[in-house]
Amino acid sequence: MSPGRRFWVKANYHRRRPDGREWWHRGWISDWRQASYRRGDLILLYLGAKFDGPRRCPAIVRVTRESRYDPEFVAENDPEAADRWPYVTDIECVFEVPIESGVPLDVFDVTPNGLQGGYKELSRSQFEVAAGYLMTAANA
After folding, report:
1. Alpha helix ranges (H) inside 36-84
2. Which of 33, 88, 96, 99 has the fewest CB atoms within 10 Å of its CB?
3. How distant, in Å, are the alpha carbons of 45, 116, 121 from that of 57?
4. Tens digits of per-residue pLDDT, 73-85?
5. Where are the alpha helices (DSSP H) in 1-140?
6. Do 102 and 137 meet the contact criterion of CB atoms below 8 Å apart?
7. Are strands 87-96 and 42-47 parallel, antiparallel or unpaired?
8. Hey, what long-range contacts does 70-78 have (CB within 8 A, 24 or more apart)?
9. How many whole angstroms from its chain centre is CA 12?
10. Distance from CA of residue 60 to its chain's centroid?
11. pTM of the model
12. Local confidence band at 105 (pLDDT 50, 70, 90 cut-offs)
């Protein structure tokens, strides 16, 4: 892994795109406040309980550009989110499993309450535990 890379878990809602692909393939995420993500950081995406969400992390994305305040961009792409989550971070999906095979938070010692701020930095060992779980699920 790259030196200086940081690891995160980010809370999200689960909504499918009209084309049937998962939303993290759109190439960006958004937050309610400025995130400290840096280019090259890896983020586990957690799909919470809202909207009957699965409470699992099915995907890892890589930050390709630091967060920026851009409510106009969000409004063009997801009008419902523009006022609540105006900070945009460009990403690329680097690994995913079917949602039902995603890693639960407790596997790497995080609770849903720990994500009330929207995201949380993880230790390298926490991230490795979660990634190992996903790799095992992918090969099952």
Report:
1. 71-77
2. 33
3. 5, 16, 15
4. 999 988 888 889 9
5. 71-77, 124-138
6. yes
7. unpaired
8. 73/28, 74/30, 77/26, 77/28, 78/30
9. 7
10. 7
11. 0.92
12. very high
Tokens in use for 28? 């960006």
Structure tokens at 26: 């759109």
Whether the predicted pLDDT of 17 surpasses 70: no
Residue with tokens 């690994």: 95
Asked if residue 11 lies in contact with residue 48, where contact means CB atoms within 8 angstroms, the answer is yes
| Domains of the chain (ranges, CATH numbers) | 7-138 (3.10.590.10)
The rounded distance, in Å, linking the Cα atoms of 118 and 1 is 25
Tokens standing for residue 128: 């490795």
